[in-house]
Design goal:
The structure is a single chain. This protein has 121 residues and is mostly helical. It has two domains: 3-84, 434 Repressor (Amino-terminal Domain); 87-120, no CATH class. Helix content is 53%, strand content 12%. The protein has six helices and three strands; from the N terminus they run ββααααβαα. It has helices at residues 26-36, 41-48, 52-59, 67-77, 87-99, 108-120; strands at residues 3-7, 17-22, 82-84. Strands 1-2-3 form a three-stranded antiparallel β-sheet, with no helix packed on it. The longest helix has 13 residues, at 87-99.
């Protein structure tokens, strides 16, 4: 998965960076959602104020759109393309593995179930 970072809109002195990942095969997801809504690539491009070639490249998986464009696409097509990066949560579990301890109250099955629920939101 490709990653993209976004600076938070907090105070300029503190600029936390949020990590996101594109969902797998996001180009196909965009194309299917667009077709389901009865839109052509040209229609979508007009509504997003983008060039048709940008839409074609995104759908072909040849171009990763900016966060701003992704947000527009998500709102228009009512889909989710960016999800929070999972690395931080995996780091939490890896601490237990390194120490040889068993995480209390967290199984991998439960962890992945919760992550899938987060992604679907």
């Amino acid at each position: 998965m490709s990653r993209v970072s976004r600076k938070s809109k907090s105070s300029p002195s503190r600029l936390p960076v949020e990590e996101y990942e594109y969902v797998e095969d996001f180009g196909r997801l965009i194309r299917e959602a667009r077709e389901k809504m009865g839109l052509t690539q040209e229609d979508l491009a007009k509504q997003l104020n983008e060039k048709v070639t940008v839409i074609r490249k995104i759908e072909a998986g040849e171009f990763n759109p900016s966060i701003e464009l992704v947000k527009k696409i998500e709102r228009l097509l009512k889909i989710k393309i960016l999800v929070p990066a999972v690395e931080e949560e995996l780091e939490h579990l890896s601490k237990y593995v390194e120490k040889g301890e068993k995480p209390r109250g967290v199984s991998l099955e439960l962890f992945f179930k919760k992550m899938n629920e987060k992604i679907k939101k």
